[in-house]
Specification:
By secondary structure, the protein is α+β, with helices and mostly antiparallel strands. The chain folds into two domains: about 5-95; about 100-200, Sandwich (Immunoglobulin-like), CATH 2.60.40. Helices cover about 50% and strands about 30% of the residues. The chain contains five helices and six strands, in the order ααααβββββαβ. Strand 1 (about 110-120) and strand 2 (about 125-135) form a beta hairpin. Helix 1 runs parallel beside helix 3 (about 55-95). The longest helix has about 40 residues, at about 55-95. The protein is rod-shaped, with a radius of gyration of 32 Å. The N and C termini lie far apart (about 70 Å).
């Protein structure tokens, strides 16, 4: 008949084995696998203690292996999830204009022409600023670019947007903006500095 000490040793090994099995089964599930990590660590500890107390060698080794696997799988799954969330976050930043500097450096080339004022039909004044947008990516992308006209004192005179939709890899397209300028802003626009305020990519 088994004595109390043997039962205790066996119980510890069995508990560790159960924790290891549960830990490895749940280690693939995000959030829940935080608990899997703890169960994996406990399984390893129980396995080592049971091994030191001369419990069943096969069972204790299996317990330790399962515990280690639960911990390793949990860490890998969490890293993969974290990396995926980082990628999604960066894409959201690009789509909402939160990463303008990086977009202008790596993804799109924007060339601002000169502000032109010409006399149109019926005495109307025609205005335009030609903006060339080039997709630097190797895939079709769309871009939204906000451009401001700024006075010499730094104040904003006007703003307009370029929407370059579905530019294929390496494609360039010209856009005309600031086509409708009120007469009270016309003189200021002639000497304005034009700058890109925000760029989005989607």
């Amino acid at each position: 008949m088994a004595n109390y000490g043997e039962t205790k040793k066996s119980g510890l090994g069995t508990a560790g084995l159960v924790l290891g099995i549960i830990g490895i089964c749940t280690s693939f599930i995000p959030i829940i696998n935080n608990l899997s990590f703890v169960m994996g660590v406990l399984a390893v500890i129980f396995g080592i203690i049971a091994l030191a107390k001369k419990d069943s060698k096969a069972k204790t080794i299996a317990t330790i292996i399962l515990g280690v696997l639960a911990v390793v799988i949990t860490l890998n799954v969490q890293k993969t999830l974290s990396d995926s969330l980082d990628v999604v976050s960066k894409e959201l930043d690009k789509a909402t204009g939160g990463n303008t500097e990086e977009i202008l450096k790596n993804d799109v080339e924007v060339t601002l022409g000169n502000f032109e004022v010409t006399q149109g039909q019926y005495g109307m004044t025609d205005t335009k600023l030609v903006v060339t947008v080039k997709n630097k990516k190797e895939e079709t992308k769309s871009f939204s670019i906000q451009i401001e006209a700024v006075a010499s004192d730094g104040s904003r005179i006007n703003q307009d947007y370029v929407y370059a939709n579905n530019l294929t890899a390496g494609q360039s397209q010209d856009f005309e903006i600031f086509s409708f300028i009120s007469s009270d802003k016309l003189e200021a626009m002639k000497s304005a500095t034009f700058k890109i305020v925000e760029a989005s990519m989607y």
